[in-house]
Amino acid sequence: MKKPLRIAVVGLGTVGGGVLKILETHKEMISVRAGREIQIMAVSASNKTKSRDFDISSYEWVDNAAELGLADNIDLVVELVGGSDGIAKVVAENTLKAGKSFVTANKALIAHHGAYLAGLASDNKVALRYEAAVAGGIPIIKSIGEGLAGNKITKVYGIMNGTTNYMLSQMERTGRSYDEILEETEQLGYLESDPSLDLDGIDAAHKLAILSSVAFGVKTDFENVYVEGIREITTRDIEYAGELGYRIKLLGITTYEKGKLKQRVHPAFVALDEPVAAVMDGFNAIAVQGDGADKCFFQGRGAGEGPTASAVVADLIDIARGHMDEAFFVPASKLVPAQPVSMTDHLSSYYIKLHVAEAAGVIADITAALKNEDVSLDQMHQKGSEEDGSVYVVLVTHEVLESSLHKALKEINNLPVNLNDAFAIRIENL
Amino acid sequence: MKKPLRIAVVGLGTVGGGVLKILETHKEMISVRAGREIQIMAVSASNKTKSRDFDISSYEWVDNAAELGLADNIDLVVELVGGSDGIAKVVAENTLKAGKSFVTANKALIAHHGAYLAGLASDNKVALRYEAAVAGGIPIIKSIGEGLAGNKITKVYGIMNGTTNYMLSQMERTGRSYDEILEETEQLGYLESDPSLDLDGIDAAHKLAILSSVAFGVKTDFENVYVEGIREITTRDIEYAGELGYRIKLLGITTYEKGKLKQRVHPAFVALDEPVAAVMDGFNAIAVQGDGADKCFFQGRGAGEGPTASAVVADLIDIARGHMDEAFFVPASKLVPAQPVSMTDHLSSYYIKLHVAEAAGVIADITAALKNEDVSLDQMHQKGSEEDGSVYVVLVTHEVLESSLHKALKEINNLPVNLNDAFAIRIENL
Asked: Which of A293, A310, A314 sits opposite B146 (nearest CB)?
């Protein structure tokens, strides 16, 4: 058997602990699979003496994580701290520059610095792996970069944030408001320490930017991901969606056509017979459209100790087996600069919810505003009056230019009868 | 860039043609991904002059495929002939023994000779790869053997035969009989040339035996897969399943517990909210239960030129990248002999359909027969009378030993009031 792969682990939170536990519990199984032992040499975290449900006394403790990559007795560093910059980036740079492989679950780091770090790994002939950064337990990075490597991939989409999917599921099930469900979700500890990462779609955007690079061979371009979160979704929208045969999901969607990259994260109406529509609670799901395999759909747990830690361990086994592939499965030097497409020219049909003081005459005004901007309607539903006499009107448009829709919405919002700004959600034909 | 990977392709049917087309159309993309060119040197098939929708004139034609692995200018042979023995096996043996890698889409070959061929590959330090043999375009072999390598896997199940899934879907949708749908399916060309492979579950059993080896590290043991096909399923069963909240699927299920392997392929009642229940038509779907990732679910096209050929090409890219892993992801010498478990002690709840001449008194007799064998009932539904006055009775049992159920059914079948033998389908709690 070959020499052990000697690793250090930085960050001993839930995932870090999970990795240590799997490596110890499944030591024998992993050695057989990897063809060599994976040996934990050193660990590092912000607090050495913190109470933990796993034992770190048999590993060397290193105070300064930045030095780990430089140690002679370490072949690979696992980073589980998180954050796009700070210590995570320092550890990544030091490790790769020292000619050692680097494994991480850090989506922000890869989304922001993926192409740069891939270049460092390539120059130093070592591996940079991040399976756990996207969709937790689902081996989606390997599936796209290796399993579907015989395909030209044109589209990747799915549910990439389990927390917001849980919230939307709970709003639908219980009929309780966004604010109530948000509070409950916070109490369950499901939210990131900065809730905006979940609620505003940023976490999903990180993952989407990574998937774009893996699927299309473009440089990671997080800055140009179009992002809308779920803060404005109400139970009323969820109810109306159901009546129309849809379910609201926060989707990440990336497409690559004629050298143009369109990356977007936003709530979407998804037809109920679409596989992603059936994905509830904390689950993630990703669909990949290839020219050979057609659509391939993956579903699993997107977060949590076991799913994330087992993905990290899979990366370790891969490297122990000698798979030293390029980080994005093409030479880093051949990653193409992304040419982002603006959403202005995006075509989509829309759900529009209006809340008006009274129905009389308003339909004519709305129709006129839409007609002015060439927005043609597929459906219009005037809902029964609310207790205060106000009325909700639901519109479904045909396919329309994003820019035209925004102009039409502006006109509609200026109608004096409007109680709230019109709220629009894209209807995705997946 | 490294030297080209020089390959030969044996078998120029739909899949063989698909492989040649992808390698030519995506030559540049594949070279970038693989880090080297994949060059087609020679082809072989039973008929050189047959009319084909792809051009083979630029490749060397070899009449005797058995010699391909011996040629000095060939690094790897792709076998797309099919069949567990015959020329496919000869080509595999010759190629591996000559120290060259072997790629196949041949599930029968791997199901019957997997452990033996893995040993040959291991001894000769070459690769044996068969991603296309299971679930077509879904990269399930790589996902289990590499992507989920950080998990101890305890169960793999799913829909592994698209043809029978298409037939069951069509029976449900149209209400037309098994025989009518079978004829239509045959006309569409969806059936294997030996239809028994599809209809009797043998094709699914081949795939299941392969998945067992990949997931559990046991020697392929096709002989001990318990198999029932779909020939006895009627539209009435499908309708009754729906009424009870289930859908009938032909499932492959393999579990490994305490060193015991239980492999089975049979129709099953699947709860409608289970992801596999929503998989219709020709699609395949496979779920993998791991101790870290929990349940991971994969869905895609299980057959056809594009899905199968792109999976073959993924194997070629993998080998071109230098991934020379063991065929079943552990050293062939460490594959454990399978210890099959008989179905006699299998525990399951059951759907039972009875067709009796008249209802009067029969319920008491049936209940007595079940009680004699300790089969306890969860539900009993006496359906309305048929035109001829006969009656269908549907029973749902609690969990019961397979052996007890068979004894009870035998007693019930001996009741004079019975018009047909009782028909039972397992209800799977997935």
From this structure: A314
Taking a C-beta distance cutoff of 8 angstroms, is the pair B100, B76 a contact? yes
CA dist., res. B323 & res. A324, Å (int): 9
In which domain, by residue range, is B103 found? Answer: 5-133
DSSP string, B268-316: EEEETTSGGGG--TTEEEEEEEETTTEEEEEEEE-SSHHHHHHHHHHHH
Q: Name the band, by pLDDT with cuts 50, 70 and 90, for residue A418.
A: confident
Q: Is residue B329 in some structural domain?
A: no
What distances in angstroms separate CA B93 from CA A18, A150, A404, B144, B328, one per listed residue? 43, 26, 65, 26, 17
Mark yes or no for CB contact B296/A138 under 8 Å.
Answer: yes
Assess: ipTM above 0.90: yes
Residue at which a domain ends, from B71, B106, B133? B133
Q: How close does chain A come to B416, measured CA to CA in Å? A: 46
Q: Using the 8-state DSSP alphabet, how is residue A299 labeled?
A: E
Is B35 within 8 Å of A143 when comparing Cβ atoms?
Answer: no
Residues 6+ apart with CB under 8 A from A46: none
Give the angle subtended at the CA of A341 by the CAs of A263 and A241, to the nearest 5°.
50
Token pair of B198, please? 């599809």
Model confidence over A250-301: pLDDT tens digits? 999 999 999 999 999 999 999 999 999 999 999 999 999 999 999 999 999 9
Which of left, alpha, beta for B280 (phi over 0: left; psi -120 to 50: alpha)? beta
Helix and strand counts by DSSP (H, E) for chain B: 13, 17
Computed from CA positions of residues B8, B14, B18, B24, in that sequence, does the dihedral angle turn out positive or negative? positive
pLDDT digits (tens, 9 = 90+) for A193-237: 899 999 999 999 999 999 999 999 999 999 999 999 999 999 999
**Catalytic positions of B, written as ranges:** 207
Query: HSE-up of A200 (CA within 13 Å, CB side)?
Result: 7
* B193/chain A closest Cα distance in angstroms: 23
- CB contact under 8 Å between A142 and B143, yes or no, is yes
Domain end point (choices B103, B133, B163) = B133
- Is B338 inside a domain boundary? no
